[in-house]
Amino acid sequence: MLINQLFDPPELPDRTVEQDGTVLLHGKVGIPVTDPLLDGHYPGFPLVPGLFLVQHVHALASAALRRRADLPLVLEKARFLRPVRAGEQVLVTVRLTPAGPAGPDTSATPDALATAELRADGQPAAEFRIRYPEGRPDPVGTTGNDNGTTTDNGTTTTGDATEPAGTLHRIKATIPHRHPVLLVDRVVAVEPGSRLLARKAVTAAEPCYAGLDDDAPAERYAYPAGQLLESWAQAAVLLACWQRPNPYVLTGKVALLAAVKDSRVLAAVHPGQVVEHEVRIVRDLGDTVILGGSSTADGRPVLEVGQFTVALRGAEVLRAEPTGDGTSDRAGDGTDNRTNDGEG
What we know:
The protein is mostly beta strands. The protein has helices spanning 50-64, 168-172, 225-241, 316-319, 337-340, and strands at 14-17, 23-30, 73-80, 89-97, 112-120, 123-132, 149-150, 155-158, 161-164, 186-191, 195-201, 253-265, 274-284, 288-297, 300-314.
């Protein structure tokens, strides 16, 4: 499977239906080392982006629920237990609880729920819980006021802080992400240790749109939720690492995603829109940083991130080999259970 097929699986995996209507999906994911999209994640040590795996589960659940993938969702929890390397076989088990009938005291329909467990080469790799609220996205093209005030000299003022914009050169000198998986174009303002604003322009040339038929429906051109989250996540890593940059993954401390909680994709983003990410540090524990924030597209809210945990771990965590007994020398993303849950 090529990594683009994580966004749009060619077919649904095997499924079983239980007596209560719960649907179980069982599938496999294998991303070849030669996949060109992994050239930038990371150079010299290809890892499958964790939030791309979230997108895969979302795509499977949406298809099984006969639900458009560009509708709002709530990522209640994503826990990453270990990195997934290119070339590894990932077993995906998704349990779907369809939306039920409205209760006697409300006209609202209970939300559908997808819970997923992923195992890489036999080892627990990730756990996700996604809720699908009823509703429709805002009309494409709805606009609002942009956040911040851009000055003539290319700086952006936010609150009391004014700092030169972060160019692509500065971004690449801070984090190891590279084309075609570098999803932040510019840092427009930063208060080190506190807050950061970044922008990502979504274009028709995005790799996720490669291969779409000319007659594909409009919703198929919505920017995948997993990539929207990944773009925000890269802005979060930029803030966490702004004063301790490491653009390499083979030496020093590497920023690894540990967990995501209480995050909502509010509306779809389409080519031609500019996404602005706002990131703030909630708690800095040294080698573990907890962040939160939101995103807008043309001034319209499209994403809320309740809690996002980054673990800074030595490069040896990535290089450690599995032990072969169902455990690994690379425990999770180098975190314990408290850190994976954003606690402790």
